[in-house]
Write a structure and sequence with these properties.
The protein has about 290 residues and is α/β, with parallel strands linked by helices. The chain contains ten helices and nine strands. Bound molecules: zinc ion (ZN).
Length: about 290
């Protein structure tokens, strides 16, 4: 995931946060709003953002697609870290923000949900049609035969091979992995595809990998069909999400962004707000459905 990340990004100085909650409410009241969500929506579910409260990048070296495919050691490192991180992802539950987005969708204010998150929490909140731009950690794909299987099955196999790795104070990141001591990585045993013995990869888009074209087109179509675009909890650092904001703005559609901190998409947005998402979206849903 996080394709085409540009160094630097929005870290240079605070951008003005303009408009108010009333503007976002008016936007939604017009109905048929497409939502694009990012890691900031899941922080209240205990899955940390890439950035801390200060907006500075956390130290985190993500796996690249090239390293994963080319290197057995790289795959061992990924799966060992992910084996630990998955326990937290699997336990995570949708928060008030995910539930409010689903409420807005059911009430017709939101027409589509596109998410950059791989944690599956929109689906868990009932938004079964959410488009997972970067895939989902709950699925695994074989690079040999293409077979998709469930992460829960793989998790059982990895537990049988490795037991439960206990890592105190392991810092989870939104990719679903954690930092691990080298010795734990070295000893880790990776599970091959049960059908062909091939290499298993999480069904997510790694750094250095492109989002599949049909999925990108599906998102453009959803934005085209919508009246406006609302970004929730994304700094839009990567082009894979930013392009939909640009697309909406070029089509003359209103764009609003609710995110803690400046984003790369602020110049395209008529409204930018820094507010906690769970409480804010719950308030919006209450106001829109009571009027
Ligand atoms: Zn296979």
């Amino acid at each position: 995931m996080h394709v085409h990340r540009t160094p630097g990004g929005p870290e240079t100085g605070p951008a003005p946060r303009t408009g108010g909650l009333a503007e976002v409410e008016r936007l939604l009241a017009g109905r048929d709003v497409a939502v694009l969500s990012g890691a900031g929506l899941s922080t209240e579910s205990g899955i940390p953002d890439y950035r801390g409260a200060t907006g500075s990048r956390r130290r985190h070296t993500p796996m690249t697609y090239q390293e994963f495919v080319a290197s057995e050691q790289g795959r061992r490192r990924y799966w060992a870290r992910s084996h630990v991180g998955w326990q937290a992802i699997a336990r995570a539950e949708p928060n008030a923000g995910h539930r409010a987005v689903e409420g807005l969708r059911r009430s017709g204010f939101v027409s589509a949900v596109i998410t950059q998150n791989v944690d599956g929490l929109h689906r868990a909140a009932g938004t079964l049609g959410a488009v997972e731009l970067h895939g989902g950690l709950d699925r695994v794909v074989c690079l040999g035969c293409g077979r998709r299987s469930s992460r829960a099955d793989l998790d059982r196999r990895l537990h049988a091979l490795n037991g439960t790795l206990f890592v105190p104070d392991a810092a989870l990141n939104p990719d679903g992995d954690v930092q691990l001591p080298g010795a734990l990585v070295e000893a880790f045993r990776v599970a091959p595809c049960e059908a062909c013995g091939g290499v298993l990869k999480p069904d997510v888009v790694f750094f250095g990998e492109s989002v599949p074209k049909p999925r990108v087109q599906q998102c453009y179509d959803l934005v085209d069909a919508a009246r406006a675009l609302l970004v929730l909890g994304s700094s839009l650092t990567v082009m894979s999400g930013l392009r939909f904001v640009r697309h909406a703005a070029r089509a003359g559609k209103p764009v609003a962004i609710v995110n803690q901190g400046a984003t790369r998409g602020d110049e395209y947005a008529g409204t930018t707000l820094a507010l906690p998402l769970g409480a804010t979206l719950t308030t919006l849903l209450e106001q829109l459905t009571s009027s």
